[in-house]
Design brief:
The structure is a single chain. By secondary structure, the protein is an alpha+beta fold. The chain has a domain of 232 residues: FAD/NAD(P)-binding domain. The protein has ten helices and 20 strands. Helix 2 runs parallel beside helix 8. The longest helix has 31 residues. The chain is globular, with a radius of gyration of 21 Å. The two termini are 23 Å apart.
Length: 374
């Protein structure tokens, strides 16, 4: 018998939906509280490494994900010159196993829609327009209060509500994301025929110029620079100007950076709750517990792994005990910390202009770690 009979989850993103699927499949009653009024249908691309794909296979949705995304198993390196000279094509480590591709790019709303449909099929209920205002733990259950006046009781509450988690604040964890000093322009555009994998260019006017195919006709391109105040409305002009130094596929990408393109600018941030992620019967996972720059593209995978490990422990245990929380911490904290620290370190090396940094060694170390199931 599972440790809980009904679970509340705050946040209908990848982590929350993954936990919901696994718990509902085990016969546990699940309700997701989502602050948005309707399912989110707008976004950009996402890069998913093999260990994330392994979780999708566990959920039984890998075929749907593969059909919507664009899979590849190599990484290209290009020179910051007008020709966009291809320097090398490297085989990527297949961190999800040899029977899965190393990487898959896809449109983030498509990924979320597949997870959402699977969660609803499993029996999870999603309640929209629910903003959490308070969390009260009486030792045997958790009551969640929302801005619309509802008070709902659960055996256990999972906060999967992102970077600025209301649940994290409500349970007294005083940790917030901080800037790493970098900012990123992202554009979701048409895919040129010769974009068949992620290619990265280091140097030029930006720290990194890169792109990732997300489907037969789509991709997202990104430019990483020093964090600064930027006018989003002027995004097409700014991004096209920065991209002018890069050749190869960037010539066609740049031509698509007009006002019809979906372009946004965000700052890289990081945080880590360096200790147990629970307070009583409330626990945070995913971006609520840890975040990092996408320099290793492991953020989504870490969130999915958090959800899968937590669900496994709750399903296998007879009751919620300190032993359960210790095992969850032991399996997740150091792994997430290694990804966060490595991702931040890569960015800091670029900010500091370190030329002899062991970037391949760091990436190989993280990839080798995540190749082992969580």
């Amino acid at each position: 018998m599972a440790a809980v009979r009904n679970v509340g989850i705050v946040g209908a993103g990848a982590a929350g939906l993954t936990a919901a699927i696994l718990l509902a499949d085990a016969g546990i009653q699940v309700e997701i509280l989502e602050k948005a009024e309707t399912p989110q249908t707008v976004g950009s691309g996402i890069t998913l490494q093999g260990n994330a794909l392994r979780i999708f296979r566990q959920l039984g949705i890998w075929e749907q994900i593969a059909a919507k995304g664009y899979a590849f198993s190599t990484l290209g390196l290009r020179a910051p010159d007008p020709a966009g000279t291809l320097i090398a094509v490297l085989e990527d480590m297949r961190t999800g196993g040899e029977d899965l591709p190393a990487t898959l790019g896809m449109y983030r709303p498509d990924m979320t829609a597949i997870l959402r449909e699977r969660a609803e099929q499993a029996g999870a209920r999603i309640s929209y327009g629910k903003t959490v205002t308070a969390v009260t733990d009486d030792g045997g259950s958790v009551t969640v209060s929302t801005a619309d006046g509802d008070n709902v009781r659960y055996d256990l509450l999972i906060g999967a509500d992102g970077l600025h988690s209301a649940v994290r604040k409500a349970i007294g964890i005083d940790v917030e994301p901080v800037s790493t000093g970098m900012g990123i322009w992202r554009a979701f555009v048409e895919r040129p025929e010769d974009v068949v994998r992620t290619d990265l260019t280091y140097g030029g006017p930006c720290f990194i110029a890169g792109y990732c195919p997300t489907g037969p006709d789509t991709m997202y391109a990104y430019l990483v620079e020093k964090a600064q105040e930027r006018n989003h409305e002027d995004g097409p002009r700014i991004m096209a100007g920065l991209a002018a130094a890069y050749g190869g596929p960037w010539n066609e990408i740049r031509a698509n950076l007009d006002h019809s393109a979906r372009i946004n600018y965000t700052r890289f941030t990081t945080h880590l709750v360096d200790g147990p992620w629970n307070r009583g019967r409330t626990v945070i996972i995913g971006d609520a517990a840890h975040s990092c720059p996408p320099t290793i593209a492991q953020g989504a995978a870490m969130a999915l792994e958090d959800a899968a490990v937590l669900a496994e422990l709750l399903i296998q245990a007879d009751q919620v005990t300190e032993t359960l929380w210790k095992e969850f911490t032991d399996r997740r904290l150091e792994r997430a910390k290694a990804v966060v620290n490595g991702s931040v370190q890569l960015g800091q090396w670029m900010l500091d202009g370190v030329r002899d940094a062991d970037v391949p060694g760091l990436i190989h170390s993280v990839s080798s770690m995540v190749k082992e199931p969580a």
